[in-house]
Amino acid sequence: MKIVLLGRPGAGKGTQGKRISETFNVPLLVMREILEAEIERGGDLGERIRGYMLEGKLVPDEIIFEVLRRELSSRDSFILDGFPRTIRQAEWLDKVLSSDGGLTAALYLEVDEINVLRRIMGRLRCKWCGRYYNVFFDPPEDIRRCECGGPLYQREDDRYEVIKKRLDVFNEETAPIIEYYERQGKLVRVDANENDIDAVWRRVKEAVEALTSHQ
Ligand SMILES: [Zn+2]
């Protein structure tokens, strides 16, 4: 089973990916973690990746391809999160997997933009214990204080300007991939609008079960 996970930021790819991995015993590969591991390992490639990240630049495709090719060559099943983000990357992945049965499916966790904004912008974190609240779905009794008494704050990354930018990148670069996989007949859509993680998980699980029974 070779699956890529697609979805807007805040769609729950991390959480659902982890559950798929544990339930179906398939390794979860998170692109950001693969790059971080490469930095940890040291060496020339890792140093170059570190340089791009320090400057806040995107790591170029050629470097990502090199790292990922090695990672994928040793696996006969995986769930990939954070890749592909562009059509070019999707085409590269198809080429790499073509000799080996190809991709099983692209699992698309569908969430409306307005729900992403509610989920991320509504988030409040406790400075003391790290607990998260959400002003829309899981509000604290006192909007300024955690249950533990700690002050609540909004993370820098959760501000509107930041999340809007990420959503725009998704719409411009990643959304075309959804069509790309749809044309291949590999797109599996799962409605992830509900805020109940378990309810979304039941749908995800059903979708993955359907995939494995086809194999
Ligand atoms: Zn607290």
Structure in words:
The protein is an alpha/beta fold. It is 52% helix and 15% strand. It has helices spanning 13-24, 31-41, 43-54, 61-73, 87-97, 113-121, 160-184, 197-214, and strands at 2-7, 28-30, 78-81, 105-110, 123-126, 132-134, 152-153, 187-191. The chain has a five-stranded parallel sheet with strand order 2-3-1-4-8, sandwiched between helices. Helix 1 crosses helix 8 (197-214) and helix 2 (31-41) crosses helix 4 (61-73). The radius of gyration is 19 Å and the shape is globular. The mean pLDDT is 94. The structure holds zinc ion. Zinc ion binds next to loops.
Spans of at least 5 consecutive residues with low confidence: none
Output mean pLDDT. 94
- Order of strands, widest sheet: 2-3-1-4-8
Quote the CATH topology of one domain: Rossmann fold
Number of strand segments: 8
Fraction in beta strands:
15-25%
CA-CA gap between termini: 8 Å
Overall CATH class of one domain? Alpha Beta
Write the layout of secondary structure elements.
Layout: E1 2-7, H1 13-24, E2 28-30, H2 31-41, H3 43-54, H4 61-73, E3 78-81, H5 87-97, E4 105-110, H6 113-121, E5 123-126, E6 132-134, E7 152-153, H7 160-184, E8 187-191, H8 197-214
Parallel strand pairs: 1-3, 1-4, 2-3, 4-8
Antiparallel strand pairs: 5-6, 5-7
The chain binds zinc ion.
Residues 126, 128-129, 131, 146, 148, 150 line the site of zinc ion (ZN).
